């Protein structure tokens, strides 16, 4: 399932594909050397936007849900990657405690948990799902659409360790992005591995920090393959001290929008791109596609109506928005059956293990697709990974395309690794 | 593509499948702990025989050819495993020198080389194929059936390093089993990784040593899952100082055949198995299904006719047979479209990355299938690995079956690791 591409009009990304394929051994070695020095996040998903003239990550999720949206065929790759990850962290591990989000009435999310449980079970771990939801006071079996069930257990916190009743795991895997803060039960667990680390949660994480790291990564990578880093990187700016309700910080926002749009306009001119530049204004700490608006002109952020201000001021779990990222928007040229789509790549440890297209039939190419009404089309395995063909005409070969997606997504993965090192509260700064 | 199984008649292996599935986390942890202490061979393939009442490896190949027989869908798993392997050995590597067998007119074998080249290319290495064939004196392009070509280069040996012209690799990967001895060009390479190590070649390797290691491995594993080790292990014996031409060693052979058949008979009686016991007499150092005969009675090895003696006395590349293994034969119950078949499992590093059925329409269930006329049916990816279903009725679910194959094959892989440690000439013995 390869989305329709208007090949003739979209030279640069096709050239990029060619260049990336030709440089495959050098690229893989480059990643290998990066991972010698830096630990990859335990898992991640990366949203990409393909504008035809550029291909770049726009969001990196370190607590990826949606594993159920990947095709069954990706499972062995995920299992193999999970084996590699576990072996490095806690090879003697018998047990893994999975801590999910609270929304246990969302069957899609429950399916995601079931899929993660299955991956780690097959990788050789006994998996229990322990929830921070205080409404769950005893083991509760919830039904999945396919007829299976999933057991949610209340957490049991000891003095130094966390588990569930009669279950003392080596590793605690968070599938909860800590948007509403770090629960007390997760603090001070020095005897167990907590993955991803607590500072990867949205309590402390900031998108602008991630994309600052990404700037560094992509600069070096672009040099390796000989392209303008902008091809792979959206411009961005940051505004702090925002209060949408109180109309506080509007000037900063308008200036930032203006600055980013100006830089984009210059690049569009340089490359002869006839698109209308826009930016995405997003909560700097937030996810689920909430707190996002698309802006084509600085004036638009000056007189926001109440509805928009309400929308922008609060993200997941009532967390208030104080910082925003103003990120260059990339109009998507990818289509599945006429609907606009964008690729999402899933990784475990350092490995690409699958992905899907996020498709939204009611959105335009310059809109946020991560919104109600979206659906997911798995990147089919045979198309996705199979065999890259260096000689295929650019833009005509699925595996080649997906290899390129995987490379760009892994650049964001390297950036996340840098970011987590830089923001680690336990790293002493000189 | 799951071969037909007469389920009702073949209880024990179905029970085994069930038991292995239930113990999956414990089994994977068991392997993880093994690999903490022991390095897996770089790659391997294992021939299995499924008798319905037992499932066991009968041959472990440390220089596997036939990678071209695996389905395209397995490629990503092999690439991922190759990445993991390379990273451990020589993460900074740019180049890999692949040293093949000499039979460069065998297009199947050339396709195998092309597939291996592709795997390591995608894993991030520049691969050159350098041959020990002295007939190749300059870079020679050979045509593959699919229209691609493969470049064979003469080796260039420096004082301390081996490469090809203008190519100085970090790692040398042997796909040549050294049946005709270790070429001088491979001796004394202390600066480069030579994989598998030279003592894994048939110059020094012995099947009986392998199966002695396997005895140890399987004893512990059988205890873990609570089965009779015999379920997973063929009896065997060894005879040295054999000379088939001179009729030397026939008594030892007859005695050994008698002993093994006696032990098998006892087991058959214990389990109520109504099969006629037989043994495979094989060259203790040899491959390609050469130098193998099936024997149902000790008297058969006493008066071998000239043809059989000729057949048994020489294996690949004219290597003379001096040692033989007398191995319990396992009648195969597996069929593909009426033809007898046996599974062959491929591994890279510690990972199962694919496999196929070796099928021979003209052979019986108690015959050697590795002989002219055989063909290969890849284990289809979606069936092979996809999703194991612990609740599926034993014998009805492809992925469950293939998971079991993979577990038994990995037991042989662990045994090979022990074997290589024990036979390492550079290990000091106390």
Give a brief rundown of this model.
Two copies of one chain form a homodimer. Chain A has 430 residues and is an alpha+beta fold. Chain A has three domains: 1-62 and 205-234 and 332-424, no CATH class; 72-200, Rossmann fold, CATH 3.40.50.11280; 235-329, Dna Ligase, domain 1 (2-Layer Sandwich).
List the topology elements.
2 copies of one chain form a homodimer.
Chain A lengths: L10 H12 L1 H14 L5 E8 L4 E7 L13 H15 L5 E6 L6 H16 L3 E6 L8 E4 L5 E6 L1 E2 L4 E2 L7 E5 L17 E3 L11 H19 L10 E4 L10 H22 L7 E5 L8 E4 L10 H8 L10 E5 L6 E2 L2 E10 L2 E10 L14 E4 L2 H4 L13 H26 L7
Parallel strand pairs in A: 3-4, 3-9, 4-6, 9-10
Antiparallel strand pairs in A: 1-2, 1-16, 5-6, 7-8, 11-14, 12-13, 12-14, 15-16, 16-17, 17-18
Helix pairs in contact in A: 1-9, 2-9, 5-9
- Work out the helicity level of chain A: 25-40%
Using the alpha-carbon principal axes, give the shape of chain A. globular
- Spans of at least 5 consecutive residues with low confidence of chain A: 1-9, 381-386
Distance between the termini of chain A: 51 Å
Major beta sheet summary of chain A: 6 strands, antiparallel
Oligomer class: homodimer
pLDDT averaged over residues of chain A = 89
Calculate Rg of chain A over CA atoms.
Answer: 21 Å
Largest interface: A-B, 41 and 41 residues
Number of strands of chain A: 18
Number of helices of chain A: 9
**Main structural class of chain A:** alpha+beta
Order of helices and strands of chain A: HHEEHEHEEEEEEEHEHEEHEEEEEHH
Keywords (chains A, B): Ligase
Protein name (chains A, B): Glutamate--cysteine ligase GshA
Pfam family, one (chains A, B): GshA
GO molecular function (chains A, B): ligase activity
């Amino acid at each position: 399932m390869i989305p329709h591409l208007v090949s003739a009009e979209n030279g640069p990304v096709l050239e990029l594909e060619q260049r990336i394929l030709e440089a495959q051994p050098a690229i893989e070695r480059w990643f290998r050397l990066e991972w010698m020095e830096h630990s990859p996040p335990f898992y991640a998903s990366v949203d990409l936007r393909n504008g035809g003239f550029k291909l770049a990550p726009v969001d990196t999720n370190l607590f990826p849900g949606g594993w159920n949206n990947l095709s069954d065929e990706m499972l062995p790759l995920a299992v193999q990657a999970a084996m590699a990850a576990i072996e490095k962290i806690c090879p003697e591990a018998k047990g893994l405690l999975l801590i999910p989000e609270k929304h246990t009435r969302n069957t899609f999310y429950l399916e995601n948990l079931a899929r993660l449980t299955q991956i780690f079970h097959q990788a050789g771990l006994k998996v229990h799902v322990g929830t921070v939801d205080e409404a769950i006071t005893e083991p509760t079996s919830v039904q999945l659409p396919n007829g299976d069930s999933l057991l949610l257990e209340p957490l049991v916190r000891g003095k130094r360790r966390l588990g569930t009743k009669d279950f003392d795991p080596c590793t605690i895997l968070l599938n909860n992005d800590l948007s509403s803060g770090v629960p007390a039960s997760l603090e001070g667990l020095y005897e167990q591995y907590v993955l991803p680390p607590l500072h990867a949660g949205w309590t402390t994480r900031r998108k602008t920090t991630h994309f600052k790291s990404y700037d560094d990564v992509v600069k070096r990578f672009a040099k390796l393959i000989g392209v303008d880093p902008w091809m792979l990187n959206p411009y961005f700016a940051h505004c702090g001290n925002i209060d949408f309700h109180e109309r506080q910080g509007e000037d900063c926002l308008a200036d930032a929008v203006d600055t980013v749009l100006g830089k984009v306009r210059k690049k569009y001119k340089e490359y002869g791109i006839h698109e209308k530049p826009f930016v995405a204004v997003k909560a700097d700490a937030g996810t689920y596609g909430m707190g996002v608006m698309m802006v084509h002109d600085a004036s638009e952020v000056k007189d926001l109506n109440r509805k928009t201000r309400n929308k922008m001021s609060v993200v997941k779990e009532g967390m208030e928005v104080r910082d925003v990222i103003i990120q260059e928007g990339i109009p998507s040229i990818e289509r599945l059956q006429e609907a606009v789509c964008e690729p999402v790549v899933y990784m475990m440890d350092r490995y690409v293990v699958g992905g899907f297209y996020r498709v939204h039939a009611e959105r335009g190419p310059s809109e946020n697709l991560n919104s109600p009404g979206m659906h997911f089309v798995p990147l089919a395995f045979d198309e996705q990974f199979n065999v890259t063909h260096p000689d295929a005409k650019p833009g005509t070969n699925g595996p080649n395309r997906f290899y390129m997606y995987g490379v760009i997504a892994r650049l964001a993965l390297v950036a996340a690794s840098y970011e987590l090192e830089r923001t680690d509260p336990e790293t002493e700064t000189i």
